[in-house]
Amino acid sequence: MSIDTSKVATTNATTAATAGKPSKAGAAAAWADDRLGLATAMKKNLRKVFPDHWSFMLGEIALWSFVVLLLSGVFLTLWFTPSMGEVQYEGSYDPLRGVTMSEAYASSLNLSFDVRGGLLMRQMHHWAAMLFVASMMIHLLRVYFTGAFRKPRELNWVIGSLLLLLGTLEGFTGYSLPDDLLSGTGIRAADGFMKSMPLVGTYMSFFLFGGEFPGESIIPRLFTIHVLLIPGLLLALIAAHMLLLVYHKHTQWPGPGRTEQNVVGFPMLPVYAAKAGGFFFIVFGVTALMGGLLTINPVWKFGPYDPSKVTAGSQPDWYMGWPDGALRIMPGWEFAFWGHTFPFNVFLPIIVLPGLMFTILMLLPFIESWITGDKRDHHLLQRPRNAPTRTAVMVSLMTFYGLMWAAGGNDIIAIKLHASINQITYFMRAAVFIGPAIAFFITRRWCISLQRHDNETLLHGYETGIIMRSPEGGYSERHLPISPARAYTMTARERDEMPALEAETDANGVPAPATRGQKLRSKLGTLMYADNVQKPTREELEEAHHHVEHENELQAGLDHPADGHQFDGHHLVDEEHLRSH
Amino acid sequence: MSDQNSHDHDHVPSTFEDEPVANPGLPAHTWRPTDVDAKAEKRAERQVAAMFGLSMVCAVLFLVSYFVFDVGDQWDTVGGLGASNVALGVFLGGALLFIGIGVIQWARKLMGDHEMVEYRHPAKSSDEDREATLAALSAGLEESGIGRRPLVRNSLLGAVGILGLPAIVMLRDLGPLPGDKLEHTLWRKGMRIVRDVVGTPIKVSDLEIGDLVNAEPEILFATDAEGEPVLEGVEVQIAKSKCAVIVHRMEPDDIVSEQTLNWSVDGIVAYSKICTHVGCPISLNERTTHHLLCPCHQSTFDLTDSGKVIFGPAGHALPQLPMAVDDEGYLIAQSDFTEPVGPSYWERDPQ
Amino acid sequence: MRLLNRSAGRLSRHRRGPLAGFVVLLLGLLMTGTLYAAFAPAQAQQGESDADQAAKGRELFLVGCAFCHGQNGEGVKTQNGNQIGPSLVGVGAAAVDFQVGTGRMPMAQPGAQAPRKKPVYTDEEIAQLAAYVASLGPGPSIPTSEDYSIEGLSASEREEAITRGGQIFLTNCTACHNFEGSGGAMPRGGYAPKIRGVEPKYIYEAMLTGPQAMDNFSNGNLSPEEKRDVIAYLGSLEEAPGYGGFGLGGLGPVSEGLFAWLVGLGSLVGFAVWIAAHTTRSQKKKVEA
């Protein structure tokens, strides 16, 4: 809507909007519109409709924690010194007084101990960073599981994936800045990662560190990347993400009156402005509570970075945990040839694997639409069970991620569960391959059986819990039909149709043989839809209902006029009262 | 949605043509207690205002805590926690949460809650717009003559392409070239091995079986004629990242490999403390097995057998420092490490 | 315990008045005198009965320890050459005091890892066992509180001791025991135990004797003062308030990640559910006024 430039242009030209008898707010709006001509664009957007569902607010958590990050981050920059210059600490924290350290670390200590509220801001910044990435991930899962990434929203999916990637990098550059023992160990590992790249690795390391590790340049350079480069990119991409959201209008769940052609919900002003604004305060408030009550990254206990020291439990922040897990379970395959060393044991898990995972993630919408050949716009969401293969693919990817993640904490798991890190590592080496396959199979079959259950409910009604005894002595459970609204909601989905092989014809009308790509596509499509349960047709429904009515007639005389549901809100039976004995 | 699109198969939103159940349409609006009951409405209004009031109280308490609780070298504590941080966090959190909860309660209970219906439009522009834009585009391209003048086009592409080179070359001075810096450390023949942190040399007789010493080369603690340290600042950090060693004494009989035995002194061995995987310092030794574990990724090395990798992701053995004893009985290096220490890299000669 | 403590976090030299050092010195002298008066005769008596103690210890040893460590503490090997119990000749009284005093010995079952548990023997019996094992061969004796306490030092010396102890701790100990002494994993199911809250004497003895798979930090490796400083640093960590709030187990980023997901994201999703939930509906119709 906001991109509709033709309308903005006409407004600006001759017929400027003049309000008749403006209220105070109206007067201010008129003043602004005289200069900016925003009324045309705002006309619809002020009352723009947003559908209401809790899962639609997950992305908002990410947005608001980003705002918290900006605010607390600016506060931190006022005291933080991004320098590796050597100083002797003479601040307030006794156990480190007199120790030689970098200015970056000394200023982090100063922020924590001498600036009132500084420790709070440091901890809020760190918690908000963890929440930022975590909420992006669950938002991504929601979008994927409900099919909200389909046309026309594929590009927004790509933007979202880039945001996740940049958010992760932003987190890494951020927790490396205080130059404490833990963050330095992380940078040390990152140096090893870079050096694993063939041909260019050593040079990249020397250029990034300004010489040999650790050098004097890495903290100031990471600082610039952390406070300028990546936040700038994040802001631009978030803006694009939101603009596209407004332009496409939000997806919605199917239901009575909710179709592909409309969007039903509450208007931006006042309800959504209040709900979103209120949620900002809640995200900010929860972050403040966490920052006040839960210690995060107690840098004073780690001490300044020293390349000859290390602590047990040297882990990255959680979002870097899964490639770290891959690194831990990778066998030590290092190749040596012609006077060169190729550390494949580092290169594969930390350079190739994350890149591959992000590429797969970004391509998911395009792969799906290529296989299904579905080029239609979709604004109604799908329940995860109604796309069994898609759901299973993501659960399988999540299983892979989760196992890698657990492998990244194998030492903590070992001490907490009294297990052996060696055994955990051997187990994980197999589990990261077998686990996702099992997860795929189980999820897919689970979805299909849920689809079957839905059809049962549609055709035969819901289970009332009332057990009937027939004159012959057999027992059966009584079913009652579901409400039309619920029946509609359950059937408001497409039938899966696999497009036939498109046989291209040449100039003479002779069909060309299907290409290898087409064959593959058709095969994948068959696999994707195989065993899916389709919703019943109208005839099937009518026949089933006919049958049920007949049953009910037969049963009507047998049992009590009340069916047992007169008191639980399903319906009322006027003549019935709770017997009092 | 506009009519011209309804025949365009690719852009029609999908519909359920054979809906087995007819769409019952939006259900009738029902009212909230606050809509129909003046008392409930008043109550909700008071609730919301109370939330905002609580927020103000929290904000004031935040200010009070800011000035009351000491930080610096004498933190006040509350229940064993830092009072300043906890109070500031809790009151800031309260001040924000109560605003948030109040506003949302307002939206849920008091703001109009009629659901509205808005119609969607296809994401694409109308066909006229699209054609007009394409026409404008081709007219512009035509007038520029970019298609007709390949010489101009190609030379422009070349010029812009070559501009990329200055951009890349400009980054050259980010750092020096590696050269052979990674192949050498500061260890030299005859340099004493000293304890880390305190810098005292180590006598063979100081160590018992099972001792593990975290050690550095003597030069890290050396001072010049004026009493200034020989190495300062970044030089120390770089030196530590390559020179740090662990010295471990075991029964001489435990040593397996010939090389380890040759480079040891009375069962005392010295190995690089920098993991050959990605470079974490590594000193988690099991006294009974002489297995050394890296806390970052769990590579395990056998100190009795030339630092061989026995578990984990590391690709090659931990370099051993050839060691000897000087006239005064102190441990010294026989030479520098015979291979590069730390993580592998492309130019590393596998030997 | 007072809930609000205005000076718990302070360790600084600003804390004590000019007379404080003098008062502490006086108190110290007084205490030393009293303690000496109380214990000196007893020690003299014990000195006489060292041989008695060792003899009693030997009896206890034959019943409780000899099965694994041999009749004369020479250690026992199985047929395939594995050690059941190592030789105790020369491990000294300190090793016995640590192993038996922390309940690690006698072990519930043979293995590389001996977990801490409730001690089986009384203090007196432990002293007897220690005397017996010490008689087998020269070894480190049980440290006294002067060895591991910084009470006798001046305020600025204490501060220096804590700072130096911190550096030694981070260099030698954190690799296995973690930056807060929370412990860490070792190969094949082994672990470095949590050392937060362990009595200073046992920490000192552990460094001195290298129990189980732990390395030795003998006096030739870390000087007695350095060991004392490490203990002082650990003590200061324990005394220091949780500046930033609750410590989450002192395990580093893994537990932080867990809290971010469960507490942070969990509560925010809870709020989202509340925000989007439908409010109660009334059966009444609105009457337009």
Task: Record keyword descriptors for this entry.
heterotrimer, B: alpha+beta, Rieske Iron-sulfur Protein, 2 domains, four-stranded antiparallel beta sheet, disordered N terminus, C: 289 residues, mainly alpha, two-stranded antiparallel ribbon, two-stranded antiparallel sheet, 11 helices, 5 strands, extended
Largest protein interface? A-B, 138 and 111 residues
Proportion of residues in helical segments of chain C: 40-55%
Structural class assignment of chain A: mainly alpha
- Beta-strand portion of chain A reads 5-15%
Largest sheet of chain A: 2 strands, antiparallel
Order of strands in the sheet with the most strands of chain C? 2-3
> How are the strands of the biggest sheet of chain A laid out side by side?
1-4
- Count of β-strands of chain C: 5
In DSSP terms (H or I, runs of 4 or more residues), the helix count of chain A works out at 20
What is the rounded distance between the termini of chain A? 66 Å
CATH hierarchy, class of the domain at 151-263 in chain C: Mainly Alpha
Described by its quaternary structure, the protein is heterotrimer
State Rg of chain A.
30 Å
What's the average pLDDT of chain C? 83
Kindly estimate the percentage of residues of chain C that lie in beta strands according to DSSP: under 5%
CATH superfamily of the domain at 151-263 in chain C: Cytochrome c-like domain
Gyration radius of chain C, in Å: 27 Å
Terminal CA distance of chain C: 62 Å
Which ranges of chain C are low-confidence, i.e. pLDDT below 50, for 5 or more consecutive residues? 8-16, 41-45
Unreliable residue runs of chain A = 1-19, 572-581
- The helical percent of chain A reads 55-70%
Membrane topology (chain C): Multi-pass membrane protein
EC number (chain C): 7.1.1.8
Main location (chain C): membrane
Organism (chain C): Nocardioides koreensis
Characterization of the model:
- The complex is a heterotrimer of chains A (581), B (351) and C (289).
- By secondary structure, chain A is mainly alpha-helical.
- Chain A is 59% helix and 6% strand.
- Chain A has 20 helices and 8 strands.
- Chain A has a two-stranded antiparallel sheet with strand order 1-4. In chain A, strands 2-3 form a two-stranded antiparallel sheet. A two-stranded antiparallel sheet of chain A has the order 5-6.
- In chain A, strand 7 and strand 8 (475-480) form a beta hairpin.
- In chain A, helix 4 crosses helix 11, helix 6 (118-145) packs across helix 11 (268-293) and helix 7 (154-175) runs antiparallel to helix 10.
- Chain A starts with a helix and ends in a 25-residue tail after the last helix.
- Mean pLDDT of chain A is 88; it is low at 1-19 and 572-581.
- Chain B has helices spanning 33-36, 38-68, 83-109, 127-144, 150-169, 234-243, 258-262, and strands at residues 77-78, 81-82, 116-119, 193-195, 212-217, 245-249, 268-272, 284-286, 291-293, 300-302, 308-311, 323-325, 331-333.
- The two termini of chain B are 72 Å apart.
- In chain B, helix 2 (38-68) runs antiparallel to helix 3.
- In chain B, 33% of the residues lie in helices and 13% in strands.
- Chain B is extended and about 100 Å long.
- Chain C has 289 residues and is mostly helical.
- Chain C is 51% helix and 4% strand.
- In chain C, strands 2-3 form a two-stranded antiparallel sheet. A two-stranded antiparallel sheet of chain C has the order 4-5.
- In chain C, strand 2 (76-77) and strand 3 form a beta hairpin.
- In chain C, helix 2 (50-64) crosses helix 5, helix 4 (92-101) runs antiparallel to helix 5 and helix 9 runs antiparallel to helix 10 (224-239).
- Chain C is extended, with a radius of gyration of 27 Å.
- Chains in contact: A-B, A-C, B-C.
- At the B-C interface, helix 1, strand 1, strand 2, helix 3 and strand 5 of B face strand 1 and helix 7 of C.
